[in-house]
Amino acid sequence: MAEIINMPKLSDTMTEGVVAEWHKKVGDTVKSGELLAEIETDKATLEFESFFDGVLLHIGIEKGKPAPVNSLLAIIGEKGEDISGLLKGEAPAEDKKEVQKDEKKTDAEPAKKEEAKAEEKSAPTETKKTEAPKPQAVSNNSNTRILASPLAKKLAEEKGVDLNFIAGTGEGGRITKRDVDHYVPYDAPERPAGSGSAAMSESFTDEPVSQMRKTIARRLGESKFSAPHFYLTISLDMDNAIAARKSMNSNEGVKVSFNDMVIKAVAMSLRKHPAINSSWLGDVIRRNNHVHIGVAVAVDEGLLVPVIRFADSKGLSQIGDEVKVLAQKAKDKKLQPAEWEGNTFTVSNLGMFGIEQFTAIINSPDSCIMAIGGISQVPVVKNGQVVPGNIMKVTLSCDHRTVDGATGAAFLQTFKQYMENPVMMLV
Questions:
Q1: Between 20 and 30 A from 338 (CA), which of 44, 352, 378, 406?
Q2: What is the rounded distance in angstroms from the CA atom of residue 38 to the CA atom of residue 267?
């Protein structure tokens, strides 16, 4: 008996998927546990294995096409088996449309053909151009004084343009510099793009939105517009952190980054401030007893947040190794659901891109996210004297439903102590 395989829900946030690759074609023999397809979710491309033995009788979703979760993905059964009954249940709406077409063969058919042609011309990936209409020749009365700004007259003289043929758009029909810049002689040939002045054409390219970008837009929109954000910024003296990192990295095989130090300091601070390590669940506030730090990683299609689990119990080198492995898997779209789920706090670092300070949108269901800026060399006052200093600014975004201002400020003070005295993280 034929078995229907539906589009699986491969992550907690997945609402639709895209078939990135079919590893079987219609007519191929399939065994249970054998790789059937690769499915692109909102966060990664995952391998999907068959649950059944048989022959692949039908493919319901073409490669590269999106489809909602639980829609018909494939049908597996015995060779030659009749699956017409199953296919009727696949898209009854389409069957209904076909019946309507047969019953209504009227003069509406030409109109439908025209609509189909219009749809083809408006394919989302096409580059579209709209030619600007050629201006009609305008002749001002030569016996009348021409109203034009001095700059417009000078520019027209330089370009060899007769002001009698330019329509002014200024007050009282006055010709402005802009009118001269945009004037094109009625019988002049079109200028090629990049010839120095505007090509007098508009163009754009529509790119289809990836599953990842759709999910990012939806989740960040939900977070920003449902969680009342407030922001706390603090400056850190990084002199001791720089010296400590240099000392640690002098050991062979050790490579600790400032981001690793931030993750460790955040994790240890959360132990002392459990209210920050929480989630708003509507009827209850969940206080997490474990510390799982999400680390924002930029990828080609958006942003992924792999999770360092039990970060408070791990050393700097271990944290650094895990971040490198997970970041690479994120860029290769090989993250597994267990590697991106379960964060209780998130860190987003743009310091390596030269950003001094920014605010980040809370990564639901966390109560807070910390935005890390770069280290800047600036004058600072120490012991009553102005001396060179190394300052790093961090901004904590807080959900006011779970975290109050004083609570967030106390957390930042603890974090500041760890970062300015890194030896405390080693005790």
A1: 352
A2: 36
